[in-house]
Structures are given as C-alpha cells and as structure tokens.
TrEMBL record:
Native source organism of the sequence: Gordonia pseudamarae
Domain called Enoyl reductase (ER): residue spans: 10-323
Pfam family, one: ADH_N
Gene3D superfamilies: Medium-chain alcohol dehydrogenases, catalytic domain (3.90.180.10)
Protein name: Zinc-binding dehydrogenase
Keywords associated with the record: NADP
Record InterPro entries: ADH-like_N (IPR013154), ER (IPR020843), GroES-like_sf (IPR011032), NAD(P)-bd_dom_sf (IPR036291), Zinc-ADH_QOR/CCCR (IPR051603)
Matches recorded under SUPFAM superfamilies: GroES-like, NAD(P)-binding Rossmann-fold domains
Length: 325
C-alpha cells in the first residue's frame, strides 16, 4: 500500500510517499481502507519530533473509510487505549499516529472500539475531519465544562479546526458564542457561521474588550482556550466562570496572579482528546441534526501531504485540511 513515511523529524519535506506493507491482522483490531484523512496541529508536532514517534513512521490521527471485514462505512476516533475511567485516560493512552502507525495511508489498523458509523450525509472529507477536533471539543465543552443552553462561550483563536468545531458545538447546545481572532476576515467568517460577535486579539487589551461583549458585560460563563493564553483568557471570565484549556501552540508556560484567581471563584479545567463514550455522545448530537459538518478549508492528495502541512503551518486555513486517497 501507499503511505506517507517520515524517516526523520523536521520540516514538511520529511513527509514522503512510499510503498509499505499493509497492516497485519490481529485480534481485537480492525483494518480500515481509508478514503480520506485529515490534518491536525498535533500531526505537525509529531513531524517535528515532540512525541518521539518511532522512525520510520506514518503520522495521522484522523480518518474515515471502509472496514475491510464488514464493508461498513466508518469514522475513526483517534483515542487509543482510553481505559475504564471516564475522568481521565489510562496510563497507556495514546493518540493514533503517535506511536501507532496513523492515517496518512491507504489502510490503517485500529482497535475495534475506535471505529464508529460514518455520520449520515457526511462526505468522506467531512467524516475524516470529525475525529480529533470533534471528540476534543465535545469533551471540553460538554463532558468537562458542562456548557448549557443560554450560557455564554468565548473561543480563543477563531479559524482553526478546533475553534470552528467548538463554535458549531456551542451553537448546537444553545450557547451564545463569541470568538477572538487574528484578523478581520476570520472574525467575519465566525459571525457568518453563527457567532454573536468577537474581538481581535492583536494586543494585550483584548480580554477587557471581549469581556464587555458578554451578556451583562461582566465576562463569559465558559472560555475555551486551545492555544495556552490562560493568563489573558481568565481576565475575560465572569466571577465563577470556567476556563477550559486544551492546547499550547502559542504558549507552553503561563504565569498567573493567584489572588485574583481564587477571589474570582474561577474553575480551571484541563482536557485533551476524549473517550469512545465522548465520541458516541458527539455522534448522537450529529444524528439529532444539531451539528453541521466540519468546515473544510482545502483538499490535497495523499502524495501532497507536505504541501498540506505547509498550508496548515501558514495559519491561513479556515477549517480542516484533508488528504484524499
């Protein structure tokens, strides 16, 4: 089969198409003939060596295709070995494409619990784009933050796959959704997709500008921070609000004032990925017709994985970037 193989860590040029053996059959695992796979920023970090993947290695967390044993159309959840506890993953948890060969290929092998029915009406590209961002956002907003209809939600950093999915879920739940963005174009697209408003995060004063947009002008019930700007984001919370954090691509270290935090009665909720149970909950929302398909920015062929990564790293994408077999 054809697969994208990294022989070393580094720039996008490390992603090279090669002929490799198809996955071996093993008990409890299924093989999926992939129709499409989707990119995540996580894949960039794998490529750069942050997760110390074994080399040579095929990255990729997201995919959708056809089970070779049953012929069913399925979508893959990239959460491997979550374990029995719903509160947090087990010690051997991993994301597909870290240590286990991923979805930048014609075939992939995953535990059977990690394949679920492809949502009705979704294209292969949309289904492939659902996995990581869908399960991550559902766990962040529903399982962890318990976001409810009528509450206000601020999403930091409009435009990417996580933020566009989070906006769709927030609107489906019935929350009043706002965003921050790096440019006017991304702000306008968020409004066109259902956001009530937003601000540019082009200077350190953006939390105060965002705060007054919330109903009551005293801050947001929930803030989703997928980039690592906790010390800024917390300033836009209402007293007693919840800050949900799940990424660090802008900042990996945070300095925060302790006294304002505990006097504000804030909750800080860490989260990442989600369990197969979370993914089933997401599919239930989708089946109810409340969640639109993921926004697709662009589609590349499998051979163009390096170009697709360069598009992702440009920061210009609106929604998900997909590889098509």
């Amino acid at each position: 089969m054809k697969a994208i193989v990294m022989s070393g860590f580094g720039e996008a040029e490390q992603l090279v198409a090669r002929d490799v053996a198809e996955p071996a059959q093993r008990p409890g695992w299924v093989t999926v003939k992939l129709e499409a796979s989707a990119l995540n920023w996580h894949d960039v970090l794998v490529r750069r060596g942050l997760y110390r993947s074994p080399l040579p290695h095929t990255p990729g967390a997201d995919g959708a295709g056809i089970r070779t044993d049953t012929g069913e159309q399925v979508v893959i959840t990239p959460s491997l070995f979550w374990g029995k506890r719903t509160e947090a993953p087990a010690a051997d948890f991993e994301i597909l494409g870290d240590a286990t060969a991923g979805t930048y290929a014609e075939y992939v092998s995953v535990p059977e619990e990690c394949v679920l029915p492809k949502p009705e009406g979704y294209s292969w590209e949309q289904a492939a784009a659902l996995g990581l961002v869908g399960i991550t956002c559902y766990r962040a907003l529903v399982t962890r933050a318990a976001l409810a209809a009528g509450e206000s939600l601020l999403i930091v950093g409009a435009g990417g796959g996580v933020s566009t999915m989070a906006q769709a879920l927030g609107c489906a739940i019935g929350a009043d959704v706002f965003v921050t963005a790096s440019g006017v174009g991304k702000l306008d697209r968020a409004r066109a997709s259902g956001a009530s408003g937003g601000v540019l995060h082009d200077d350190d004063g953006w939390p105060e500008r965002a705060r007054v947009l919330a109903p009551g002008a005293d801050g947001f019930d929930v803030i989703l921070d997928p980039v690592g700007l906790w010390s800024h984001s917390v300033r836009a919370l209402r007293p007693g609000g919840r800050l949900v954090v799940l990424g660090a691509n802008v900042a990996e270290q945070v300095t925060m004032d302790v006294r304002p935090f505990f006097f504000g009665q804030y909750s800080l909720l860490g989260t990442t990925m989600g369990s197969p149970q979370d993914f089933s909950g997401l599919l239930g929302l989708i089946a109810a017709g409340d969640v639109p398909p993921p926004t697709i920015d662009s589609v590349f062929s499998l051979n163009e994985a390096a170009a697709a990564h360069r598009r992702l790293e440009s920061g210009q994408a609106i929604g998900k970037i997909v590889l098509r077999n």
